[in-house]
Amino acid sequence: MERCVLNLNYCADIDCIDSFIPRDCLVVTIIDAKIAEIYGKYFPTPQIRVVASENNKSLQSVESISLQLLEMGVDRSSFLLAVGGGVISDLVGFIGSIYMRGIKFAYVPTTLLAQVDAAVGGKTAVNLSGFKNILGVVNQPAFTLICPEFLNSLPKNEMLAGLSEMLKTFIIADRDNYFNFLGEVRSRQLEAKILWPFIKKCSSIKASIVEQDPFDNGVRKLLNLGHTFAHALEKITQLHHGEAVSIGIILASKLSVKLSLLQSDEELTIESDFKDLGLPVASPVKLSSLTDVMLKDKKKTGGNLDLILIESIGKAIIYSINVKDLEGLLNDLS
User: CA angle, 196 as apex, 120 and 53 as ends, to 5°?
Assistant: First the structure.
């Protein structure tokens, strides 16, 4: 199995970001428009400002930004710096992978969700007619630079979105830190200094998994816990990604109990913990309405759909389900 090494860096002070920016080539920063208003001054390079929305994670945006890069003189020796959340890293990584058949790029994630998940691992993609991440490649950035200072300007809903991905990582790989993390965030405000050691732990867990399986052929699939449900929910509702992942994890835990993989008390613990943090746990739509969308998910192969299910907090497995059985299995989960 092919392996890779991720260049993951941590920077406690935003002022140190400048030392990571290349000096020997043209660098263009593609930045979330809202982030640019607050932190744009820390990136003294030509900038392209992008409204970070799922609607803009599209081939139309790829074309628009690529044309701007051409006008700016960006060539194969140039460097793209993505500054923002998951939409920006997905978009810039995809552009960097195909522009002039590939140029170097790097990520400075500014949301909690991006710092622990979206900007770690090299998955890049755009959406297709509302279907999530259908067009994309796996291509590692030159580096990912994680700085907690950006989190100080995040609204609470963005922080909660990141919490769902952090809990996901601990559920699949680290039981002790699942409970340690809950103990910290239940008793304190969601401040960057409280989250910082857990951000580093989460991102390093994901990096370790990706390094073993960069192209999602084996163990990396575990990182998709809750995501098949989540992508379907995002397609047919107005839920944001973190909210949908939270609900998806709960649905995966309920299905795990139904299939006798997970003890019911563990499922109740997970659901109670998510509720305590203010995360959504119930689907706003009937689960039968998710089936058709789930069957268009990338994790479907032939007549089977690989779901990530839970054996215990700290251990998840890849569980293949026949597509003919999916609708029946979803009954009575909500």
Answer: 50
Q: Do 104 and 24 meet the contact criterion of CB atoms below 8 Å apart? A: no
Phi/psi for 246 (5° steps) reads: -55, -50
Under DSSP, is residue 114 helix (H, G, I), strand (E, B) or coil?
A: helix
Helices of type H across 44-85: 59-71
Decide: helix, strand or coil at residue 140: coil
Token representation of residue 179: 């409970």
List the structure tokens of 232: 């379907």
Q: Is residue 47 helix, strand or coil?
A: strand
3-state secondary structure of 105: strand
Instruction: Give the tokens for residue 70.
Output: 């051409």
Question: Which domains are delineated in the chain?
Answer: 8-153 (3.40.50.1970), 156-188+215-330 (1.20.1090.10)
CB neighbours of residue 321 within 10 Å: 19
- Kindly report, residue by residue over 249-271, the tens digit of the pLDDT: 999 999 999 999 999 999 999 99
Alpha carbons 156 and 301: distance in angstroms, whole number: 38
Model confidence pLDDT, tens digit, residues 308-318? 999 999 999 99
Note whether 182 and 318 are within 8 A (CB).
no
CA dist list (Å): 98 to 21, 79, 225, 284: 21, 13, 29, 38
